[in-house]
Amino acid sequence: AVTREEGGDIAFKTLENGKHVCLPVIDEDFSELLFDEEGAAHASFVSRAECGWYNQLRNVGIEAASTLSSCVPDNFVFAIKANEYHWDMFMYGLQNVKSEKCLIDRLIILCLDGATALKCKYDGFTHCVQYVDTLRASDFMQNDFWRIGWLKTKMALALVSAKLTAFIHDSDVLFLKVPDMDRIIALDSTAEMFHRWEQLNYTALFLKSSFEEESEPVDVPHKGLNSGHIVYLPTEKVHQGLLLSLRKGKEWGTNKNRLEQELLMSGMDDVGVKRTGLSYKYNSYCSTRSFNGEHEHLEEWITFHVNCAKGPELKMLVMREVQEDWIKHKSG
Hints:
The chain is an alpha/beta fold. The protein has eleven helices and 16 strands. The protein is globular.
């Protein structure tokens, strides 16, 4: 089989046996993920155009990672995807950290339409990358939801193949502070992947007489993987897990019972990736909305993911509530 070799341009090729490769990102073992036609056969497939576009994404990632930063470790980037539909919400979510040049200079923004690409540059971001296609405004399981969702896995594949550690997050995330990446990794030095738990029982956590910031909370119910916050380390197992999750996406198709994050978790587990959770300080609307002390310990939160709120209007409403409460906490 034709396998990956590091270095050089990322190139789409068709082998003599008719199989496609996108080396060094996707080799012959996963050739069924590639197609040489216009229009995606499935959201988890990689087209010839996307394979070529990987060069731009990888190069911007390397450029961002090489920028001097006092708050983000070397060879580390943040990455997000956004379209015009969610741009205002994305900007609102960044308001507390937008002035932190050490973070913003390491942020890659994947623009899903031409209007967003223009706004990205106009709003002062350095690392704006336009996608090869235009993806429509999409709420949960509507319109281009599936294609947009699988783009996070495809982005991770390109950045990990460039030997970068990547924190990939959704556009509906309110940053209250700059994440301390050294602290995240120190919580479990053996982990290759950190993610927010899909479910974390905050009631049980805060009822404990004492609790600490930890990736695997003791005696607190937690499970699942939420793809709204994921830190990928550039290991070979992570690379294989990303490819396998794309394959699982192809096998399952657009099944409304299997989100991309479930197949990502399955793929990572199948290849033996050591994954663990981000601490309770990376919070979410899904986790807190059923909790009586909804904003308890808010002063300790680092991010707040507005999942389980459908549509930008409701997401913005929830974000504003948290932002206003956080300001009150800060002012004493």
